[in-house]
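Sequence only, no structure available. Ideas?
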Amino acid sequence: MAKKYFGTDGIRGLANYGAMEPQNVLRLGMAAGKYFTREDGREHSVVIGKDTRLSGYMIEPALVAGFTSVGMNVRLFGPLPTPGVAMMTRSLRADLGVMITASHNKFYDNGIKLFGPDGKKLSDEAEMAIEKLMHEGFKEGLATAEGLGRARRYDNAQARYIEIVKATFPRRMNLNGLKIVIDCANGAAYRTAPNTLWELGAQKVISIGVKPNGTNINAECGSTSTNALSAAVLEHGADVGIALDGDADRLIMCDEKGKIIDGDQLLALIAIGWKETHRLSRDGIVATVMSNLGLERRLQDEKLDLIRTGVGDRHVAARMRADGYNVGGEQSGHLLMTDFATTGDGTIAALQVLAEIIRKDKPASEVLDLFEAVPQLLKNVRYSGQNPLELKSVKSAIDDAGAQMGKNGRILVRASGTEPLIRVMAEGDDSAMVQKVTDDLAAFIEGAL
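Reply:
I predicted one. Tokens follow.
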């Protein structure tokens, strides 16, 4: 049975509509609570964090009602990065962790990510079981009046998270002398990220995207809109810029010249740096099919493997766990280092990059530019109704496009796991061919709708 609510990264959708309607959120809380509650005579607990979206005020109490109705105690963190929720789930010995966020999406979307007691995202099997429980009636599995759960605010979650993050930075180092711009996307890390940099001794921290109002998360700021970051770095003469997304599990950076550095370049830096310092658990890293061919070639020069997975950090994390890799990530900026965290953490990743800049004692522009990216183009085609990838004509067009690229490039066409979009990507050494194949294939798919 296909999943109805869960996508590639939890549940996500338009706030107050469909899966994100209060009654469905309530059902999710009840179902997840029942799934993680066992008849063992002990109390069970769940921790809940969120980003800064207006709809969080609606979703959070609906979840609380669901969990407490089946006897789970709830601890509420307020705004906290997604990886912080995963960390605190383990630290507080909770049965379940919940993050209310739609990550890099605009404010009108929201979503719910679930973490097991080990701080890792749930398996497909667990998500299927929870969805099955969501279809039960509202009265099944309710706690007795004396068995209802309690809810309370947990005021020091941000401070505890900052201490955990700071501990990942090399003890012999500090950020003295560095002027850093940090763009928090008006999201979950608007307090924690600047404070972390300041406490580690940065000479000056210029914070932007730190005035959330419920509707400005990811709005012309953050890792998906980096013009503000580049401008601030140049205006203040900063040494480096850091951009997070709404829930702070992504990282994009900027050198002192205003050039944006994507996740592939950052993966190359960490992989090569960790190889030099004997910190890689294996001779390679894990990335997705979206990572640039230039990254693969650069790693080959260093005798490092690039293991590719499907799109989504959960697939990267699963492969890392299965095969024992300790570095992985996505071009979009999800960077996973399992020595420190069970999921991507933009702040921790930024600290590891800053450590490499300090270790090499060179400007960011010389440290962060490790390979020449192969021309790559991505186009999105929005659809409604039937998935166009199910059409024979579209499948044939994709095969034809792949034949045009030949051995000097590749194409990737996939449905987004979070939005009704078909993502068409082509890359190769011939930029004109990449442009033509991408344009033609996207136009064909759009015309087939």
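Residues 179 and 204 are 5 Å apart (CA to CA).
Hope that gets you unstuck.
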